[in-house]
Write a structure and sequence with these properties.
Blueprint: E1 8-13, E2 16-21, H1 31-44, E3 52-57, E4 62-64, H2 75-79, H3 93-102, E5 107-112, E6 115-117, H4 119-125, E7 129-133, E8 138-140, H5 154-162, H6 164-173, E9 177-178, H7 179-185, E10 190-192, H8 194-209, H9 215-228, H10 230-245, H11 248-260, H12 265-269, H13 271-278
Parallel strand pairs: 2-3, 3-5, 4-6, 5-7, 6-8, 7-10
Antiparallel strand pairs: 1-2, 8-9
Helix pairs in contact: 1-3, 4-5, 5-6, 9-10
């Protein structure tokens, strides 16, 4: 699987799949890259040993530049791309692809070191988490300036990330949003110094991958349900919590925490480090 793609470089380590987008000269989200991303997502949908997917770019200047503008010359060929057949077929192929990625059972993390506009920004917005280089990264939805609207999920994903008013500012203004601003408004989780970006993302990916089986997926499902309805979210969290309490890991880890000093004044002052030591 790791060498089966022309525009992606895949490596696997410790329950994490590292995906490096490599589609010169600017990592255009064209038919070749979309097809490879779709094939990779299909492979990951049943890969239970992979718990986290990190998306990165081989080009430090461009994560994914944007969608292929030549699609405007032959929209029928674009619409006919056979991507994500399990998704709603009334959606265009790029929307279906991003929904397939958004629906993956793994936690998806985008590592943004360069520019991501249009479909590239929407690909990032479809992921669970996004981290950006403070000095180098920027994002934009510039489609309205070109006579259309974001067509790969931006109008649907951004309101939940940054709110309605800022979504409209991003889409209607069409300006480049730097990493610091993207962090402040919620488009990315954090903007960190470029020299720290790899460490921040890789450390988080490893921590998530090391969680007991089912925990990351349960947390994500509970949060996603709560976004739609607080009441339904609480019920879903309660249902999932009961299932996790039935797993041996919950009892084993609680006992280990107590033995290591939880419930004591000294242990509680350093509880995060204590938990790290037992997991």
């Amino acid at each position: 699987m790791t060498d089966a793609y022309s525009t992606l470089k895949i490596s696997l380590a410790g329950g994490v799949a590292y995906v490096v987008i490599d589609n010169p000269p600017i990592n255009l989200l064209d038919a070749a890259l979309m097809t490879d991303l779709d094939r990779f997502a299909d492979a990951m949908s049943g890969a239970h040993d992979i718990r986290v997917i990190v998306f990165d770019s081989a080009d430090p200047d461009f994560f994914v530049a944007h969608g292929d503008m030549t699609a405007a010359d032959d929209p029928a060929a674009f619409v006919a791309l056979p991507l994500a057949p399990e998704q709603d077929q009334s959606l265009n192929p790029m929307m279906r692809l991003h929904e397939r990625i958004r629906s993956l059972p793994q936690i998806t993390i985008g590592k943004l070191r360069g520019l991501a506009r249009g479909g590239g920004a929407e690909l990032l917005s479809a992921m669970d988490l996004r981290f950006a280089s403070l000095e180098r990264a920027a994002m934009a939805q510039m489609e309205c300036r070109l006579g259309i609207i974001p067509g790969a999920g931006g109008t649907a994903y951004l309101p939940g990330l940054v709110g309605r008013a800022r979504t409209l500012e991003i889409i209607l203004g069409g300006q480049l949003v730097d990493a610091a601003t993207a962090e402040r408004i919620g488009w990315v989780n954090r903007a960190v110094p470029d020299t720290e970006l790899d460490h921040v993302v890789d450390t988080l990916a490893a921590r998530i991958a090391a969680l007991p089986p089912g925990v990351a997926r349960a947390a994500t499902e509970a949060v996603d349900t709560a976004v739609e309805s607080t009441t339904h979210g609480l019920r879903k969290a309660n249902e999932l919590l009961k299932g996790l309490f039935d797993e041996p890991a919950a009892t084993r880890l609680a006992r280990a925490a107590l033995a290591a000093g939880a419930h004591t004044r000294d242990g509680e002052r350093r509880l995060e480090a204590l938990v790290d030591d037992i997991t």
